[in-house]
Amino acid sequence: MMTLSIDWEDFGQLFGKYRHKVISEPVNGAIERQTDVILDLLDETGNKATFFILGMLARHRPQLVKKIASRGHEVGVHGQNHESMYSLSRASARKDLECAYKTITDIVGAKVYGYRAPFFSINKTNLYMLEILADMGFTYDSSIFPMKLPRYGIDDFNEEAALYKLANGKEIVELPLTVSTWLGRKWPVSGGGYIRLMPEFLVNRVFDGLHKKNMDGMLYIHPYEIDPEPIDVSANYIKGTHFSKLNVRAQNLRWNIFRGSVYFKIKRLLARFKFTTCLERATYVKGKTDGSSLLGQ
Fold first, then answer.
1. How many CB atoms neighbour CB 157 within 10 A?
2. Cut 0.85: pTM above it
3. How high is the pLDDT of residue 241?
4. 175 vs 162: CA distance, rounded Å
5. 260: CATH
6. Phi first, then psi: what are they for 191, rounded to 5°?
7. Nearest CA to 37 among 270, 275, 277?
8. Contacts of 22 (CB under 8 A, 6+ apart)
9. How many folded domains does the chain comprise?
10. Residue 38's domain spans which residues?
11. Residue 38 burial class via C-beta count within 10 angstroms: exposed 0-12, middle 13-18, buried 19 and up
12. Angstrom distances, CA of residue 198 to CA of 95, 106, 212, 269
């Protein structure tokens, strides 16, 4: 089963926050344009997706969240302030989740079932996040990379979607991000910057292989990765801020290199394979599971 997810966050809002310690309202109409591109692409290819909604963006753009839901796509939670969950205490992490959940459910007027942590920030140090999610009534999580990377991931974590029994006596489905084994080692291949940097023939090889083996595949993207307009980081500095032109050029190169290829790579994948929502996949996993595994086993 192929699953498509969008980490719905605004590039300028995040860049402004982490460069200048502020949370600013999105500007220049970028998130509106990017959301429309994604929604139109999904309509054109006949696919549905899960949009993991960032609370601080939803607060400024509630009508866009309603638009996503009205087009038949699943709405999930991506946290409130885009903080790494392992950098927060257990109490602070729960507060962030509760704030985001209220923000988003108040907008859509319905329960939401899934969560993805910013920066995929559930690792061995904070697996209690799954207990918090289950306690709050979430059906599934999709935050874990089943390999160790510099900022995130858990080595040797189950690569397949599965139902887990937790220490608090509750259960949750984990939908891990897709990795591929090549030359004797694992590689992250499921989306975002990885698809931007990978040649298209390798992207196709990964998803063809998953399809032939009848294996699950999780594809994720961010809105700014398929924006037809180039990213200019200087447009996201606070007015009056002094910045190095050399640094701006370097940052623009970093964020724009090969970005123009992402839309077409994604479009061709969506045309070749049928993609569904995370909730549909999680429901399928729960339905086919006789029991659940203890986390870590």
1. 19
2. yes
3. 72
4. 7
5. 3.20.20.370
6. 160, -160
7. 270
8. 16, 238
9. 1
10. 2-294
11. buried
12. 37, 39, 21, 14
Looking at residue 118, its amino acid is P
The CA distance from 297 to 295, in Å, is 6
- 141, 129 contact by CB (below 8 A): yes
Cα→Cα distances 170→75, 142, 203, 287, Å: 23, 17, 37, 16
Q: How would you classify the pairing of strands 162-165 and 171-174?
A: antiparallel
Alpha carbon of 204 to those of 13, 95, 195, 272: distances in Å? 32, 40, 10, 10
Backbone dihedral angles phi then psi of residue 55, each to the nearest 5 degrees? -60, -40
Q: Are 113 and 279 within 8 A, CB to CB?
A: yes
Q: What is the reported pLDDT for 297?
A: 46
Which residues are paired to 187 by β-bridges?
180
Pair 207, 2: CB distance under 8 Å: yes
SS3 content of the chain, % helix, strand, coil (to 5): 45, 15, 40
Q: Are 3 and 281 in contact (CB under 8 A)?
A: yes
Alpha helices in the chain (DSSP H): 11-20, 30-45, 55-58, 62-70, 90-108, 128-135, 192-197, 200-212, 245-256, 262-272, 278-288
Dist. CA 113–CA 120, nearest whole Å: 17
For position 68, what pLDDT does the model report? 98
The predicted-structure confidence for 111-146, as pLDDT tens digits, reads as follows 999 999 999 999 999 999 999 999 999 999 999 999
pLDDT under 70 in the chain at which residues?
Answer: 17-23, 238, 291, 296-297
Residue 81 to residue 92: CA distance in whole angstroms: 12
Which tokens hold the place of 269?
């994948």
pLDDT number for residue 21:
58
Please give the single-letter amino acid code of residue 70: S
